[in-house]
Structure formats: structure tokens, C-alpha cells
């Protein structure tokens, strides 16, 4: 039987936390950087912490990467404990298991943050592989394809047999560059954020379920 894989981005896909992060970052940036730099950092969805730090330094910040990470760490404890799991996700995971997909996660978030969420759900044991790009320093962050290329290698599955669900344009570029079939996920997007470049778009998990049965059979 042909192997098929279904790989999730994490923030904004498995957990509905993008709006919470946007609000938290707005106040964090203002406190850390002041109004001028904070205004220039308004659109950082899909960027990892190192990329945000680099961008802030280009705008004149002297805040260290460690200081910025510590601030994110404080916010993360609340956000990952309290943000809702994406509606309908459990049914999707169970369908993927029934259809014998390999299930993976590729995220820029630290594994410790991911585990806060997975400890809240019953189906975490059904996920076959998790790659944290924050912890895997040898892998370049999105929009580079490294994370998705790595998980397909671990699964020994062809890119043409891999669905990736992403909610950021950097993530879409990453997965497309790895050769996967990419679905832009719109259910939990921050206000006014527009996805582009995906093979198709899904408004919710019901739309994702409709893809599962027939994908990659031929």
C-alpha cells in the first residue's frame, strides 16, 4: 500500500492561538522596543523568534535574542494552556488514522510549547513525528523547506503523497518548496491576513476531511 502523510503546522492550525499571539506580541513589542519599532513589527505572523529579533535589530533594537525569547516564554505558558484546540480536529485525526496516514507536525515553536497543548488532548499518541525547528538548530526555519523535507525523509514518503496544512505564507512557501501538496488553512487566521500560493484552501477542518480519502491513491 502506498504511504501517505498528513503534516500539520502547529500554531493556528492545531491550536487556535494566532489572534492571542497577535494581541500578546503587540503589547510585548511596545514594552520592549517602544512605539516606533513596535509599529514596524505589526506583521510578524509566520516568523520565528530569531527572525523577529533580526528584524527588530534592523530597525534599531538592542534587545538580545535571549531576552526576546524569555518574553515569549512568559506569554506562551498562558497562550498554550488557554487557547482552544481547533474545532473538529479530533475527528480529522481519527479519520487520518482510519485512512492509514502517517501524521506529523512541523513547527517553529519549541517542543516544550507544543507539549503543553498535546498534554491537553486524548489523541496526541496518534501523531507519528514532531519536528520543532526551534530545537532542531541544523534545520533552517520556514520559508526554507528543511522541516518538511526532513519529515518526509523520516516517513520515507514521497512529496507527491504528502499533504501539508499551513496558515502562513512563509509556511506555504516552505511546504511547496519541499514538493508537498499544500492546503492554506483559514479557520483561525488573524484579521486581515491573506494566504497565497497554496494548492488549495480550506476554511475549516470539515474541508480538510474531504481531502483525505482520495488523496494520493493513484
Automatic annotation (TrEMBL):
The record lists the membrane-crossing segments as none
Q: Please, which domain of life does this record's source organism belong to?
A: Bacteria
Q: Which residues form a coiled coil?
A: none
- State the InterPro entries in the record: HAD-like_sf (IPR036412), HAD-SF_hydro_IA (IPR006439), HAD_2 (IPR041492), HAD_sf (IPR023214), PGP-like_dom2 (IPR023198)
Q: Which residues form the signal peptide?
A: none
Q: What is this protein called?
A: Haloacid dehalogenase
Q: Which organism is it from?
A: Candidatus Gottesmanbacteria bacterium RBG_16_43_7
Amino acid at each position: 500500500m502506498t504511504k501517505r502523510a498528513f503534516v500539520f503546522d502547529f500554531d493556528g492550525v492545531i491550536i487556535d492561538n494566532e489572534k492571542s499571539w497577535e494581541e500578546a506580541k503587540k503589547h510585548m513589542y511596545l514594552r520592549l522596543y517602544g512605539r516606533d519599532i513596535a509599529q514596524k513589527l505589526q506583521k510578524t505572523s509566520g516568523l520565528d523568534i530569531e527572525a523577529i529579533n533580526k528584524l527588530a535589530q534592523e530597525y534599531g533594537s538592542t534587545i538580545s535574542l535571549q531576552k526576546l525569547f524569555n518574553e515569549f516564554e512568559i506569554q506562551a505558558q498562558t497562550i498554550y494552556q488557554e487557547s482552544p484546540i481547533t474545532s473538529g480536529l479530533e475527528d480529522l485525526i481519527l479519520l487520518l488514522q482510519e485512512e492509514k496516514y502517517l501524521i506529523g507536525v512541523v513547527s517553529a515553536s519549541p517542543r516544550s510549547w507544543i507539549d503543553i497543548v498535546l498534554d491537553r488532548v486524548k489523541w496526541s499518541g496518534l501523531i507519528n513525528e514532531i519536528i520543532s525547528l526551534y530545537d532542531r538548530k541544523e534545520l533552517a526555519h520556514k520559508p526554507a523547506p528543511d522541516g518538511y523535507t526532513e519529515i518526509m525523509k523520516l516517513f520515507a514518503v514521497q512529496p507527491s503523497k504528502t499533504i501539508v496544512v499551513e496558515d502562513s505564507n512563509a509556511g506555504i512557501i516552505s511546504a511547496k518548496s519541499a514538493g508537498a501538496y499544500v492546503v492554506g488553512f483559514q479557520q483561525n487566521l488573524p484579521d486581515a491576513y491573506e494566504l497565497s500560493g497554496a494548492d488549495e484552501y480550506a476554511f475549516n477542518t470539515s474541508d480538510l476531511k474531504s481531502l483525505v480519502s482520495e488523496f494520493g491513491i493513484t
